[in-house]
Write a structure and sequence with these properties.
Layout: E1 4-9, E2 15-21, E3 31-37, H1 48-58, E4 63-67, H2 88-103, E5 108-118, H3 120-131, E6 135-141, H4 147-154, H5 161-173, E7 180-181, H6 197-209, E8 217-218, H7 219-227, E9 242-247, H8 255-264, E10 269-274, H9 284-300
Parallel strand pairs: 3-4, 3-5, 5-6, 6-9, 9-10
Antiparallel strand pairs: 1-2, 2-4, 7-8
């Protein structure tokens, strides 16, 4: 399956890099396009190539763009910005710039653009789907919907987050380097930003088979997680079709929070419930079930 290394500029001039998979079989001259981006700190080599190839194998008339977020993987860091810092508002605008990029490609139908996100970017697609009517289909897999509530469940009471945030703010204001925190960790004195065993196991396994991922994010990233609540926008996605994929035993983006958000979404919407945890959607039977449902959904929406 052929793919092209591509790059495009965001509105502020930051260069994002990724892969473009042209449609391999299209009745029309221009093909629908699905844009894929990964979750919290993850890079495109962490399974997104497999997702793109599986979707295109089943849907040869679909073009696919996969890209790395700014400050991660192959993409550049913005001017005067810090690498390994996740600012949701910036990633949301970057996703909109990715839409503009594929719309301008001659082989893409600019009226048939879909967006796909998983975990943290599963929240981004809810936000973009709510505000950008160029989007004609939204696929949100094990999405982050409410950072405030997730933090209350996952962060240990003895972790002095507020003191960490204040110290980092003071240091930055004083011209010092920002503080960092591991994405995943087995050190109880410095738990990871994603403090679950399955997060540690998945990221370390992926890091062993890929290059370019760094096990760190800024402390400011953690503060911004708490304020990021994209599920509150979900009712505004309609009339754009929404597919949400939820893992029953997910502790990182808990199923009950995802379902509460889904229940507030308006039609047209579809839900796939999978057994297992957050990272089970990236391999094995759960990945297969997720892909099959996505294919069915995209056939009836983006490719209709």
């Amino acid at each position: 399956m052929s793919r092209e290394d591509v790059s495009f500029k965001t509105g502020d001039g930051t260069v994002l890099r990724g892969w473009f998979y042209p449609a391999t079989s299209s009745i029309n001259e221009k093909a629908p396009c699905l844009i894929l981006s990964h979750g919290f700190s993850a890079i495109k080599e962490m399974v997104l190539d497999e997702v793109a190839e599986a979707l295109q194998k089943a849907l040869p008339s679909l073009a696919v763009l996969v890209y790395d977020h700014r400050g991660f993987g192959a993409s550049d860091t913005g001017h005067n910005q810090i690498r390994s810092e996740i600012v949701p508002a910036e990633q949301i605008v970057d996703m909109q710039d990715a839409i503009t990029y594929v719309q301008m490609r001659p082989e893409v139908d600019p009226e048939k653009i879909g967006i796909w996100g998983s975990s943290y970017s599963g929240g981004h697609v809810l936000s973009v789907g709510a505000i950008d009517r160029r989007v004609k289909a939204v696929v949100s897999q094990v999405p982050h919907v409410d950072g405030l509530q997730v933090g209350r469940r996952l962060v240990r009471a003895d972790i002095p987050l507020d003191a960490m945030f204040q110290a980092d703010r003071h240091a930055r204001a004083g011209g010092k380097e920002p503080a960092f925190n591991p994405v995943v960790s087995t050190d109880p004195s410095q738990p990871g930003a994603l403090p679950t065993k399955d997060a540690y196991d998945w990221f370390i396994a992926q890091a062993d088979r890929t290059k370019g991922w760094e096990n760190k994010v800024t402390v400011r990233t953690l503060e911004l997680v708490r304020a990021y609540r994209p599920g509150l926008m979900i009712d505004a996605i309609s009339p754009t079709p929404l597919l949400m994929i939820v893992a029953v035993a997910d502790t990182l983006t808990p199923a009950d929070m995802c379902l509460e958000a889904y229940n507030r979404a308006r039609e047209p919407k579809e839900l796939l419930m999978l057994e297992g945890g957050h990272f089970d959607v990236y391999a094995g039977d759960n990945m297969g079930k997720s892909i099959n449902k996505q294919v069915d959904f995209l056939k009836r929406t983006l490719l209709a």
